[in-house]
Design goal:
The complex is a heterodimer of chains A (337) and B (498). Chain A is built from 15 helices and 2 strands. With 337 residues, chain A is an all-alpha fold. A two-stranded antiparallel sheet of chain A has the order 1-2. The longest helix of chain A is centred in the last third of the chain and has 27 residues, at 226-252. With 498 residues, chain B is of the alpha/beta class. Chain B folds into 2 domains: 4-239, Rossmann fold, CATH 3.40.50; 258-495, Rossmann fold (3-Layer(aba) Sandwich). Helix content of chain B is 33%, strand content 26%. Chain B is built from 17 helices and 22 strands. In chain B, 49% of the residues are buried. Classes of the chains: A mainly alpha (337), B alpha/beta (498). Chains A and B meet through helix 1, helix 10 and helix 11 of A and strand 2, helix 1, helix 10, helix 11 and helix 14 of B.
C-alpha cells in the first residue's frame, strides 16, 4: 500500500506551520464555512434574514428534523442506517396525543411515549445485530409497520384539543440575549446536540460507537460488546424520534398520523451533508448541526425569494451532491480515498 | 539491452503534500526471465508496481515497453499494452465462475452479447497452460487459494500479457501449493513471458528467480544475479547494514508453572485438539499447512469461535463465550489480518492501542489514553509521528506493534499471535520475535502460529505440529532438526514418532 510506504517519510516531516494548520482546520470544518457563505448570501438577499425574529424562527423550524438527525448520527457512525425514524416520529406524535386526550398528565404521557420510541429503536437494532440482518431492511420494515400502527391508533383520525400545558413544551419563549428569545423546542435541539457531542467525544460509549463503525471485527476482537452498541444506537435513534414526535405534536397542538413522511430522508441527508461517512467510523454531531441549519437556511432563502417548493427540492438535492463531492475530494487529498 | 522487455528509468513519485515514495527507481526486465524485486516495507515496491501497472502515474521518469516509451493511464490500458498485475489479495470476483473471471472486462462479444463458445475455448486454453485441474464452471470462492492464484495467472494469459507482475503470491500459499505455482511460472518463462516477482522470502527467490533488484528508501540499490549472490549481500542491500537473519538463540529452560492447559477442544471443521500446554514464560509455536486449524484453534481459545472442551487457565476452568470473556481472563489475540481484524485503520494510534482497556469506564479521557499508550508503544520501539496519527499511515511492522500494544496495555498474560509476521520485512520480523522473547521473559505465556517454520523454529521453546485440525506432534526445536518438523507438517500423523 502507498500508505504504509509513506509512513516513514511522513513521520519525519516537519511540523506544519500556523498557516498550514489554519488551512487544515478550514478543510476539516468546511461545513461551517459553507454555512457562513450561505448565511452571507441570505443576508445580502434580504434585510429581514438576520433579524432576531427570523433567526429564532429558523431554529424553531429546524428543531424536529434536527433532533431526529442527532439520533441518526449515532446510527450512521456505526455504519448502519435507520429508515424508520419518520414513522416513529408520527407514531410517537400520535401516541402522546392519544395518551393526553385519555387524561394522562403531560409528564406521564411524555415519559411513556419516549419509552415506546426507545423500545421501537432498540427492538430493530437488536434484530439487526443479533440476526445479522442489514439494518436497511429491518428499519425499512419498521418504516412500514410503525406507520401502520400509527393509523391503527385512531383509525387514521387526527387527535386535537390537547391541553395548554403540553404546548408549553415546544413554545415557551426563553430569553437568550436582550431582545432575542428562542422557543423551548429550539433550545432542546441545541442542548441535545451538545449532549450528543459530549457523549461521542468524551465517553467510552462514544469511542465504542466510532470503533464499531470503523471496523466491527477489530472492535469485537478487542472485546467490545458490538451487538449491544448497535442495539444502543438504534435505541438512541428511536428515543430521538420519539422526542421529535412529541415536539411536533406539541407545536401543532394536534396529533397527525400523516405527519413526518419522508423525514428520515431529510435526517439522513443532513447527517451525510455534515460530513459523517455512510460507511461508519467518521463524522460528528457538530457537522450534523450545521447541516441541519444549512438546509433550513436554504429553505428560508427560497421562501424569502418567493421560489416554490419545487425549486427548493431540486436545488437542495444538487447542493447535497455538491457537498458529498467536496467531502470525497477532501478525503482523496488526505489519502483516505 | 539484449532481450529487454520492460525498462524503468529513474522513476519518482511524490504524494502531496511532501511525501516521497519513490526517488530514483530503475529496473530492467528481460524476456523470459523471472525478475525478483526485494525491499523492506516502505522501500517503494508497491508504488513502483502500481506505476508500472497503470494504477498510479509517476511524477518523473520514464517507462519503456519493448523500447517504446509508454504512459499507461489505467490498469486496463496497461493490460492492453501487455502488462498484467496480480495483486496479493487476488482481484477476482468470488461469486463468478472461473471462466467468467478469466475474461472479466475483456470478454469476447458480438454486439454486446458474450460469445460463449469462443470464451470457453480460450478459457480452456489458458487453464491448460497453467496446468489447472479444476473445472471452468467452478465458482472462484469454492477454489483453494492456490487454485485462485492459478486462475489469476491464467487471467493474465487471456490478456496476452508480455510481463506478469506478481505481488507476494506466496503470502497465502503453503509450500506444496507454492511449488505448483512455481512450476507454472517456469513454464510461462520458457514460453517467453517475463515475470516480475515480489517477495520478502529469500528462499523463494533462490528457487524461482533469475535476477533480483533491490529497492531501499525509494531508490534502486542494485540488480544481482541470483545464483552468484550470497544471502548476506542481499540482506545488506535491503536493510542497508549488516544485520543477521532470524537465528535460533540459546534459550534458557522454561521453569514457570502451567499457564494454560487444553485437555480437549473440539470445534467446527473437524478441529480436535488435546493435551496442549503452555507455561508462564514459554513460547509455543504452532506449525502446519494452511487450513490445518491453527487459526481456528486460536480463535476458539479467544472466544471468537464456539467450541466444546475442557481447558484450564491459571488453575481455573476456562470456557470463553466471547472475546470479551477471554480478555477478562487476561488473554489477548493478535489476529491473522491486522487490517481487517486487528485495527481500526482510520482511528488514531492511541485509541487503537487503548481500545480493549477502556472497558468498565464511563469517560474516555484522551489525555490519559495517550499517557498509557505512549510508553508501551515506545517500549516496543514503534516508529510513529504523533499518537493522534491515523494508524493506517504506519508501516506494517509498526501497525503490528500497535496491535500488540493493545494487549500489553490491557495487562494480558496469555498472548495468542496468529501469523504475526505476515507482510513484514526481515528487520521487522526479527524485531517482532525479539519482542515476543522479551514478553515471555517477563512471564507471559505465548502461542505463535505461523506458516513460516523458520521463524517459529528460531523463536519457540516448543513446536506443536497441526495437521488437518489436530495437533499431531510436539517437538523440541533444540533437539529436533527443522526438516523433521517440516515433514510432519506436510505428511501428517503417520510420520511422527512418539
Amino acid at each position: 500500500m502507498s500508505s504504509t510506504e509513506t509512513a516513514r517519510m511522513s513521520a519525519s516531516a516537519p511540523q506544519p506551520g500556523l498557516g498550514r494548520k489554519l488551512v487544515d482546520i478550514a478543510i476539516e470544518y468546511n461545513f461551517v464555512l459553507i454555512f457562513l457563505v450561505v448565511v452571507a448570501i441570505a443576508a445580502s438577499l434580504s434585510d429581514s434574514f438576520l433579524t432576531f425574529g427570523n433567526v429564532a424562527n429558523l431554529f424553531q423550524q429546524a428543531a424536529v428534523v434536527g433532533v431526529v438527525a442527532v439520533g441518526m448520527t449515532f446510527v450512521i457512525l456505526t455504519g448502519n442506517i435507520d429508515l424508520s425514524v419518520g414513522s416513529v416520529v408520527a407514531l410517537c406524535g400520535m401516541l402522546v396525543a392519544v395518551l393526553l386526550s385519555a387524561g394522562y398528565p403531560p409528564f406521564v404521557a411524555v415519559a411513556l411515549t419516549a419509552l415506546v420510541g426507545l423500545s421501537c429503536g432498540a427492538a430493530m437494532g437488536a434484530i439487526s445485530a443479533l440476526a445479522q440482518v442489514p439494518s436497511f431492511i429491518v428499519t425499512l420494515a419498521g418504516l412500514v409497520s410503525f406507520r401502520g400502527i400509527t393509523y391503527l391508533l385512531t383509525d387514521g383520525v387526527p387527535v386535537s384539543g390537547l391541553p395548554q400545558g403540553f404546548a408549553a413544551i415546544s413554545s415557551t419563549m426563553v430569553p437568550i440575549l436582550p431582545g432575542f428569545a428562542l422557543t423551548s423546542m429550539a433550545l432542546i435541539f441545541i442542548v441535545l446536540c451538545i449532549v450528543a457531542g459530549i457523549v461521542l467525544r468524551f465517553t467510552v460509549f462514544g469511542e465504542y460507537v466510532y470503533a464499531t463503525g470503523g471496523n466491527p471485527e477489530a472492535a469485537r476482537l478487542s472485546g467490545l460488546p458490538t451487538r449491544l452498541i448497535v442495539t444502543s444506537v438504534f435505541a438512541i435513534s428511536g428515543l430521538m424520534a420519539a422526542l421529535g414526535g412529541i415536539l411536533l405534536t406539541s407545536r401543532l397542538r394536534i396529533g397527525q398520523p400523516t405527519a413526518a413522511q419522508g423525514l428520515e430522508l431529510d435526517a439522513i441527508a443532513a447527517v451525510v451533508l455534515g460530513g459523517t461517512s455512510l460507511f461508519g467510523g467518521r463524522g460528528s454531531v457538530l457537522g450534523t448541526f450545521f447541516a441541519v441549519m444549512l438546509l433550513q437556511v436554504l429553505r428560508n432563502i427560497f421562501n424569502l425569494l418567493g421560489l416554490g417548493s419545487f425549486y427548493q427540492m431540486t436545488i437542495t438535492g444538487l447542493i447535497i451532491i455538491a457537498a458529498i463531492l467536496l467531502n470525497r475530494f477532501i478525503d482523496h487529498r488526505k489519502g483516505r480515498g | 539491452m539484449e532481450g529487454e522487455i520492460l525498462a524503468v528509468r529513474n522513476l519518482s513519485k511524490r504524494f502531496p503534500p511532501n511525501i516521497v515514495a519513490l526517488e530514483a527507481a530503475s529496473l530492467s526486465v528481460r524476456r523470459g526471465e523471472v525478475h525478483c524485486l526485494l525491499g523492506a516495507n516502505g522501500a517503494g515496491k508497491s508504488t513502483l508496481l502500481k506505476i508500472i501497472a497503470g494504477a498510479y502515474r509517476q511524477t518523473d521518469g520514464a517507462l519503456l515497453l519493448d523500447g517504446r516509451e509508454v504512459h499507461p493511464r489505467s490498469p486496463a490500458e496497461a493490460a492492453r499494452l501487455g502488462i498484467s498485475m496480480i495483486y496479493q489479495e487476488l482481484d477476482l470476483v468470488p461469486q463468478l465462475t472461473v471462466e467468467q473471471n478469466l475474461f472479466l472486462g475483456h470478454a469476447p462479444a458480438r454486439m454486446g452479447f458474450i460469445d460463449r463458445r469462443t470464451r470457453r475455448k480460450r478459457a480452456q486454453q489458458a487453464l491448460s497452460r497453467v496446468g489447472a485441474t479444476f473445472p471452468l464452471d467452478a465458482r472462484v470462492e469454492t477454489l483453494s487459494v492456490a487454485n485462485q492464484q492459478l486462475t489469476a495467472i491464467a487471467r493474465s494469459l487471456t490478456m496476452d500479457a508480455k510481463i506478469i507482475i506478481m505481488d507476494e503470491p506466496s503470502a497465502s500459499l503453503n509450500e506444496t501449493e507454492l511449488g505448483a505455482v512455481f512450476e507454472v511460472i517456469r513454464e510461462l518463462v520458457r514460453q517467453g513471458v517475463a515475470i516480475l516477482y515480489v517477495s520478502h522470502r529469500l528462499g523463494e527467490l533462490r528457487e524461482i528467480g533469475d535476477r533480483v533488484t533491490v529497492l531501499r528508501s525509494g531508490r534502486t540499490i542494485d540488480t544481482f544475479e541470483v545464483k552468484s549472490t550470497p544471502d548476506s549481500v542481499l540482506v545488506e542491500a535491503i536493510i542497508g547494514k549488516e544485520r543477521s537473519l532470524v537465528e535460533r538463540a540459546a534459550r534458557p529452560p522454561v521453569t514457570g508453572e502451567t499457564a494454560l492447559r487444553v485437555n480437549r477442544l473440539s470445534g467446527a471443521h473437524g478441529l480436535e485438539i488435546s493435551g496442549l500446554e503452555v507455561r508462564w514464560g514459554e513460547v509455543v509455536g504452532l506449525a502446519g499447512l494452511n487450513g490445518s486449524g491453527r487459526t481456528s484453534f486460536l480463535k476458539a481459545l479467544f472466544g471468537a469461535h464456539a467450541f466444546q472442551g475442557d481447558i484450564v487457565l491459571d488453575g481455573k476452568p476456562f470456557h470463553p463465550r466471547s472475546p470479551a470473556a477471554a480478555i477478562r481472563r487476561g488473554v489477548g489475540l493478535v489476529p491473522e489480518s491486522r487490517k481487517t481484524e486487528g485495527l481500526i485503520l482510520h482511528a488514531p494510534i492511541y485509541s487503537n492501542a487503548t481500545l480493549p482497556s477502556l472497558r468498565g469506564n464511563w469517560l474516555a479521557r484522551h489525555g490519559l489514553q495517550k499517557q498509557k499508550a505512549t510508553p508501551v508503544l515506545n517500549s516496543l520501539s514503534t516508529k510513529y509521528g504523533r499518537p493522534e496519527q491515523a494508524v493506517v499511515q504506519l508501516s506494517g511492522g509498526n501497525q503490528q506493534k500497535v496491535v500488540l500494544s493493545k494487549w500489553i496495555i490491557n495487562g494480558a498474560r496469555v498472548l495468542l499471535l496468529d501469523e504475526p509476521s505476515r507482510g513484514l520485512d526481515i528487520g521487522a520480523k526479527a524485531d517482532l520475535y525479539n519482542l515476543v522473547d522479551k514478553l515471555a521473559d517477563e512471564g507471559a505465556a505465548v502461542i505463535v502460529a505461523s506458516s513460516e517454520l523458520d521463524e517459529i523454529y528460531a523463536a519457540c521453546d516448543v513446536i506443536w505440529v497441526f495437521h488437518e485440525g489436530r495437533n499431531i506432534g510436539k517437538f523440541n526445536p533444540s533437539t529436533t532438526d527443522r526438516d523433521t518438523i517440516l515433514k510432519a507438517t506436510i505428511l501428517g500423523e503417520d510420520h511422527v514418532q512418539h
